[in-house]
Amino acid sequence: MALRGRAAIYARQSITREGSASLDVQVEACREAAARLKLDVVAELVEAPSTSGYSNRGRNRPKFGELLDLIRRGEVDCVVAYKTDRLSRGGGPGWAPLVDAFEEAGRDPDRAVATTDGWVSEFEIGIRSAMDREESKKTSDRMQAVRAREAKEGVPRIGGGRPYGYSRDMSEHVEDEVSRIEEAADRVLAGESVWSICTDWNQAGVPTVTGKAWTVQTLTSILTSPRIAGFRTHRGTVVGEGQWKRIIDEDRHDALVAALAPRKSKPRKGRTYPLVGFLVCGKCGGALRSLTRENGGRSYACRKGPGMGGCGGIRIQANGLEAYVRDLICGMLADPVTCAAMAELAPVPSPGLASDALADLQLRRERLIDLYTEGDIDRATFRSRQAKLDDQIRAAEAERASGRADMPSIPSTFEELVTTWEESGIDFQRQLIEILVASVTVNSAMSRRRAFDPHRLSVTLRA
Ligand SMILES: [Zn+2]
Predict the structure, then answer these.
(1) What distance in angstroms lies between residue 316's CA and the mean position of ligand 1's atoms?
(2) 310 CA distance to ligand 1 middle (Å)
(3) pTM for the full model?
(4) How far is the centre of ligand 1, averaged over its atoms, from the C-alpha of 447 (Å)?
């Protein structure tokens, strides 16, 4: 019996598990179909389960890529699949590369794809792929409806990491973690900062769910999550009571949310890089400079090029870093031990930028007088320039005075500190950083992830 071609079998779990043939059954049926069509099976490509679905459009389907390669290299003449939807990449577009690959290899499109029902014509492929796409979308809609109903009924959302304080299926409390949540809630509602709790816990080796260190973000999201108060959310909104035991009551939940609500930062004016002068490149030891993109994205970077003197090897996004330093400083200031230590610190002689500017203006004013007295400029020019400089000098003096006046009125709770930090502006921020922080070294990113990663930083505090 002469074989009519070399076939690759392609199998994957369908998107809807119910009524889906197991992979073994699929492959077996494909082998039978291949035998019926007198095809020689030269490859069996089986996707690992739990891939695909409309939402990821088949991105994680390595075997589909292998299939395309086999076709392009001319190693197979056709593909046998259990159903046509197995070849869709979450919809019609998956067929385009497949059809292209067959065309590239010069295969007859009417003898390129077979299912257990026989050959699929090119015409049919077009129609089926459009139907697949529609079906996939319906499945996705059905799943959305199921998820919304489950949420209303308070069925726990399971998947991803284990929620802190609960067993994976949320049927039980994890007692150690429950008492940590209660402890943290007590401390926050007593005015303590999340930062100082994290510091304590990290020093004491209190584990997180992932094994990483506690961060303000992690603990804040646990403390403010409706889940620990027994509420089920759907798409970010509470839709009902969860079918699990709460850890804190509703009143405490509301109080925590109020205490830990993110403060909106005011739009910045003028100089917008408060950390310039404090950041050190982890690669070359140079100073990081500000870098503003055309789209407004702000970062700090070790910049190379004329007059820059850096290595060009380090860049970090400004927003994440500034929030980190803010939380660090405010956390330290909210900590009674730091406060006591600060009171004993001799006031840091801080020439600051305001006074630099002032000195510069005063120098220019002296030069202006020289020019006038030596007859280089006329009286009118002198008067107008002098008036302008005087205004600038008064503004600089006021700025310096307000900077001084701000210092004694530092609030004591973390949250108030954060508010003051955001409202008082960059000069105030820089004064506080200068008192507490010697430098922040920014090391290379560990991954290409764009999210802010505090592990890149090494902070040197002032003694
Ligand atoms: Zn550098």
Answers:
(1) 12
(2) 5
(3) 0.39
(4) 18
| Secondary-structure class of domain 5-149 per CATH | alpha beta
Region(s) of the chain under CATH 3.40.50.1390: 5-149
CA of 427 to the centre of ligand 1 (A): 26
Task: Give tens-digit pLDDT for 160-175.
Answer: 678 999 998 899 999 9
The full 3-state SS of the chain, as one line of letters, equals CCCCEEEEEEECCCCCCCCCCCHHHHHHHHHHHHHHCCEEEEEEEECCCCCCCCCCCCCCCHHHHHHHHHHHCCCCCEEEECCHHHHCCCCHHHHHHHHHHHHHCCCCHHHCEEECCEEECHHHHHHHHHHHHHHHHHHHHHHHHHHHHHHHHCCCCCCCCCCCCECCCCCCECHHHHHHHHHHHHHHHCCCCHHHHHHHHHHHCCCCCCCCCCCHHHHHHHHCCHHHHCEEEECCEEEEECCCCCCCCHHHHHHHHHHHCCCCCCCCCCCCCCCCCCEEECCCCCECEEEECCCCCEEEECCCCCCCCCCCCCEEEHHHHHHHHHHHHHHHHHCHHHHHHHHHCCCCCCCHHHHHHHHHHHHHHHHHHHHHHCCCCCHHHHHHHHHHHHHHHHHHHHHHHHHHHHHHHCCCCHHHHHHHHHHHCHHHHHHHHHHHEEEEEECCCCCCCCCCCHHHEEEEECC
The domain defined by 175-260 carries CATH number 3.90.1750.20 = yes
Q: What is the pLDDT of residues 348-397, one digit of tens each?
A: 434 444 556 676 777 777 777 767 766 667 777 788 888 888 887 777 77
Distance 283 CA to ligand 1 centre (A): 5
CA of residue 302 to ligand 1 center, whole Å = 5
